[in-house]
Design brief:
FAD/NAD(P)-binding domain; 6-stranded mixed β-sheet; Polyamine Oxidase, Chain A, domain 2; 7-stranded mixed β-sheet; FAD/NAD-bd_sf
């Protein structure tokens, strides 16, 4: 099914499957399908592959503008990196870390717990224990099905924390790891159940608060190289760039998805190409589903569900220096401060690079505030925040760059979609359910590896497996 034919005035190609989106999920789906003998077209709106992973050289400095880290439990990603022949290296973590207290006091420390005072540390450990217990009870696969789901999904994480503890500093410090560090939304904007899912996707809340676990290593050459290598293997006759999909049409007028007959042709229109296929994998985040017209319209449940999912906002700040000066001071480059503009800072020096790179994160409402400022004023405030962690040398980088995926046309936020209050238990069971010939695949829908490349790969493989199983059952496969 690879010949070309004419549909009206348009030239179309035929494939077994169309994949919308050339991020890790879409490329993994295509890779699995091609390996099983299916013909595939991957249509990508951007001029590059990789989705929310993206590397660029800026003023001579190699920067990973998007997702970059791998944790030890991300076995799907680790196996693929090995299979593709790519290398990894550990994040620098030797020396002391820095904690900025609510009163602005600067403390250095070793270990995984902030030096926040004896009573606050005890409260933080107690809260982590409670959350670990909830993760163990509720699990990662179907958190919406647990008896506590509704109760936990109708209270914000901020309010839930304060029901558990009156120690404000402990609540704020725990909140860093989910609100600013992961969901990039204020802790009052998502539920306690969403926080439990975030922790469960990493194995436990203890893992989530352990930066040496969750931010363990990077790919030599950048995380985008995983997608670039997969795309190169698939080839230019499979992966089409600068090809935003506008319409997906299945069946005729008056028919519904409930009447879908497997194997019925689906037509996918894009700006550059029309593809006729039997199955479609939509491998973009849920906030972009509405950029596509579906004919017939998606079911009511889908329309409602997608309106309750949104991405957060974060500025990923890259500051490159002639040397990693903090190491000479016995510092790891790691810093945390719940009330700081940059709530998290890490040594992000590239593999075998003599220069030093720091990465800092400005999330949610703090990002709103500084994005409203002139660029030079924003830069000054952010560098002053880095300097409060690591000293005045941080004020003078040789390269400075801000990644802002919220302004990207085909992303519109970071790092992944999460539900508003009450949305996860209401819609979670349906978020990955196929609609007629359409399947969904992205890190935003993952269980293990939620909002990470590992989860995207798992989702892509699951979508491909679903198509292959359905084809075997109906005889619609090859």
């Amino acid at each position: 099914m690879t010949d070309q034919r004419t549909l009206g005035s348009e030239t179309a190609i035929e494939r077994d499957v169309v994949v919308v989106g050339a991020g890790p999920a879409g490329l993994m789906a295509a890779r699995a399908l091609v390996a099983a003998g299916r013909t595939v077209a991957v249509l990508e709106a951007r001029d590059r592959v990789g989705g929310r992973t993206w590397s660029q050289t800026v003023e001579g400095a190699f920067l990973e503008l998007g997702g970059q880290w791998i944790s030890p439990d991300q076995t799907e990603l680790l196996a693929l990196v090995d299979e593709l022949g790519l290398g990894t290296y550990q994040r620098y973590r030797e020396g002391e870390s820095v904690y900025l207290a609510p009163d602005g006091a600067r403390h250095t420390y070793t270990g995984s717990m902030f030096p926040a005072g004896e009573s606050t540390i005890a409260e933080m450990e107690r809260l982590v224990g409670i959350l670990d217990g909830l993760v163990e009870q509720i699990g990662v696969a179907q958190p919406w099905a647990h008896p506590l789901a509704r109760e936990l999904d109708t209270i914000s994480f901020s309010s839930w924390l304060r029901q558990q503890s009156s120690d404000e500093a402990a609540c704020d410090n725990i909140g860093i790891f989910v609100a600013g560090g992961m969901l990039t939304k204020p802790a009052h904007a998502f539920s306690a159940l969403q926080a439990v899912l975030m922790a469960a996707s990493a194995g436990s809340f203890s893992h989530l608060v352990d930066e040496d676990f969750i931010l363990d290593r990077r790919v030599v050459g950048g995380m985008q190289s995983v997608s670039e290598t997969m795309a190169a293997e698939l080839g230019e006759d499979v992966v089409f760039l600068n090809t935003p999909v506008r319409t997906i049409r299945w069946a005729g007028e008056g028919q519904t998805y409930a009447e879908h007959v497997p194997g019925t042709p689906v037509t996918v229109w894009s700006d550059r190409l029309t593809v006729v296929a039997r199955d479609v994998v939509v491998a973009v985040p849920p906030n972009l589903y509405s950029r596509i017209s579906f004919e017939p319209p998606l079911p009511r449940l889908q329309h409602q569900m997608h309106q309750h999912q949104s991405l957060g906002l974060v500025i990923k700040v890259h500051a490159v220096y002639e040397t990693p000066f903090w190491r000479a001071q016995g510092l790891s480059g790691t810093g945390f401060g719940a009330h700081e503009l940059c709530q998290e800072v890490y040594d992000n020096t590239n593999h075998e690079d003599p220069r030093g790179t720091l990465v800092g994160f400005v999330s949610d409402e703090k990002a709103d505030a500084v994005l409203a400022l002139p660029a030079e004023e924003r830069r000054r405030l952010i560098l002053e925040s880095l300097a409060r962690y690591l000293g005045e040398e941080a004020l003078e980088p040789v390269v400075y760059y801000e990644s802002d995926f919220g302004s990207e046309e085909w992303t519109r936020g970071a790092y992944a979609a999460s539900y508003d209050l009450g949305g996860l238990h209401r819609y979670g069971a349906h978020q990955a359910t196929p609609v007629g010939p359409i399947r969904w695949a992205c890190s935003d829908l993952a269980a293990e590896g939620y909002q990470h490349v590992d989860g995207a790969l798992r989702q892509g493989r699951a979508a491909a497996d679903g198509i292959l199983r359905a084809g075997a059952l109906t005889g619609a496969g090859r």
